[in-house]
Write a structure and sequence with these properties.
single chain; 330 residues; alpha/beta; D-Maltodextrin-Binding Protein, domain 2; 2 domains; 5-stranded mixed beta sheet; 3-stranded antiparallel beta sheet; 16 helices; 11 strands
Length: 330
């Protein structure tokens, strides 16, 4: 199945582009492909649609958030950044906008990037009364720590991650210590494995995670209701020496596509396509879960998305362009 999908995507593009039917006005386009799964999916989807639908010659440039945005602001390259978690480069991005070097091209993650505290869906369905942190504390015995059965176990982030510091402060602000141990899973793999192990045994689990990720695609989770986000409180929570931890939530994270102003001015039709890209966390997590199960590369996951979610991507395109892309997939 995986091989069929990548052949259908890759060979279809080659045949279509060499058939003499594609546009030639678009020219060369560069896309910054970030070094994580969801960004690789989006970059490869953009590449395929720009090539088959708009006749562009697309090059993917391997990069990461900060160097990509810095290069776009200072050098006007690459043309497109496929997925920018704006909170991590806010100052650079805003400077680029002010200087007329970059523009926002819309939210590629329709519901934004999400960081939060979660319980598995099967736990939420069995114990529907657990909705808030207070409910969690009152039912700590369900989440028994195997090394200290007198308390529950909360799975936090590994040491060295910023979210470890934030979770420590939230843990204190919510008074979690009276009922839970704040457990360090040791690594990203350890955190993911704890969820997979609990799911396999249908055991209770509570802790931190983020979306979109393969884990969220494989194991449906329900977000605990945390208090409202407060910018000043969250800024303190991000400090190890925060003197007044705030019992709030993680901030919403806008996840944008961005283009250089040069590209926006010279490629208005292609820009309209980029601006319309919007994928939900649930869909992208499902694609990433498929990719992990099949050991797929970014272009293979893009092929899976294009073949399975035609209704989503075709809505981003004019009818004539969508028809060209559909033909290329045959």
């Amino acid at each position: 199945m995986k091989r069929f999908m990548i052949v259908a995507l890759g060979l279809g593009a080659v045949l279509y582009l060499t058939s003499g039917m594609a546009f030639s006005a678009c020219g060369k386009v560069t896309i910054g492909e970030m070094n994580w799964g969801s960004a690789q999916v989006i970059a490869n989807v953009e590449k395929f649609i720009l090539e088959t639908g708009y006749g562009c010659q697309v090059e993917l440039i391997q990069t990461a958030t900060v160097p990509c945005m810095t290069s776009m602001v200072e050098k006007s390259e690459p043309d497109i950044a496929s997925e920018i978690w704006i909170n991590s480069v806010k100052a650079i991005f805003e400077k680029g906008v002010r200087d007329g070097r970059v523009i926002s091209a819309g939210n590629v993650l329709k519901d934004g990037g999400v960081e939060s505290w979660w319980i598995p869906k099967y736990v939420a369905e069995k114990h529907p009364h657990i909705k808030t942190v207070s409910d969690l504390i009152a039912n700590a015995s369900l989440f028994k720590d195997p090394e200290d059965p007198s308390k529950g176990r909360f799975y936090s982030c590994p040491s060295g991650w910023v979210c470890k510091i934030i979770n420590n402060n939230l843990f204190n602000a919510y008074g979690m210590g009276k009922a839970f141990n704040n457990f360090n899973p040791g690594s990203a793999e350890g955190l993911a494995a704890s969820i997979a192990k609990a799911a396999a045994r249908q055991q209770p689990w509570v802790g931190y995670y983020w979306s979109p990720t393969p884990i969220m695609g494989k194991y449906p989770m329900v977000e605990l209701q945390l208090n409202e986000y407060d910018a000043e409180g969250h800024a303190c929570n991000a400090k190890e020496d925060c003197d007044k931890p705030h019992a709030g939530r993680y901030p919403p994270s806008d996840v944008l596509a961005a283009t250089t102003k040069k590209f926006a001015d010279s490629h208005p039709k292609e820009l309209e396509f980029i601006k319309k890209i919007a994928i939900t966390n649930d869909v992208l997590s499902e694609v990433l879960a498929w990719g992990e199960d099949n050991q797929a590369e970014g272009n293979e996951m893009a092929g899976y998305f294009m073949l399975k979610y035609e209704k989503i991507w075709s809505a981003w395109l004019p009818a004539d362009v969508a028809a060209k892309v559909k033909q290329a997939l045959k």
